[in-house]
Design goal:
Order of helices and strands: HHHH
Strand content: under 5%
Number of strands: 0
Helix content: over 70%
Distance between the termini: 18 Å
Oligomer: single chain
Shape: elongated
Low-confidence stretches: none
Mean pLDDT: 92
Number of domains: 1
Length: 163
């Protein structure tokens, strides 16, 4: 049972944190490949971000359940495991915030600007708001990645603390 829960925990962390590490490269390649057509690149990256968030929310739930089970089995150090659980909860909250608040607001701004944000005047209110939301989205994803790395450290500490 211990091996199953540890495997689920490590797999879920690998999927979520790995996706967060890989996503900026995918976004950059998409925009570079479709360079003159930033509208299409933005649509593709937006869809991929939604998939990343869905993967993150599922992975977060699996990781939380696995950690709770490992705590129940008294396999992990309580303090470090509880810290990892807290970090996972914050990661999930940030992911949900981005998925259900930031992305829909960006989509509303994109539509308000006529569909192609890059063709809208930079001083337009919908473009200004879109850019602010985009920067917020990048900051949130960066925070999720950083918290994910800290979670991995906490899990490693929880395991080593038990010997």
């Amino acid at each position: 049972m211990k091996t199953l829960f540890r495997t689920l925990l490590f797999l879920s962390l690998a999927v979520w944190v790995g996706g967060e590490i890989f996503f900026p490269f995918v976004a950059a390649i998409t925009f570079n490949t479709l360079s003159p057509d930033t509208h299409s690149a933005g649509i593709i990256v937006g869809h991929l971000l939604r998939v990343l968030h869905e993967m993150g929310l599922v992975s977060g739930l699996v990781a939380l359940l696995a950690l709770a089970a490992l705590l129940g089995l008294r396999i992990y150090n309580r303090g470090a495991a509880l810290a990892a659980i807290a970090l996972l909860a914050v990661m999930a909250a940030l992911t949900a915030y981005s998925q259900f608040a930031i992305i829909p607001a960006m989509e509303r701004d994109r539509i308000s600007c006529g569909g192609a944000i890059g063709q809208t005047d930079q001083s337009s209110p919908c473009r200004v708001n879109f850019e602010q939301l985009h920067h917020r989205s990048e900051a949130v994803e960066g925070a999720i990645l950083l918290l994910g790395l800290l979670t991995i450290v906490c899990v490693a500490k929880a395991e080593t603390a038990r010997g």
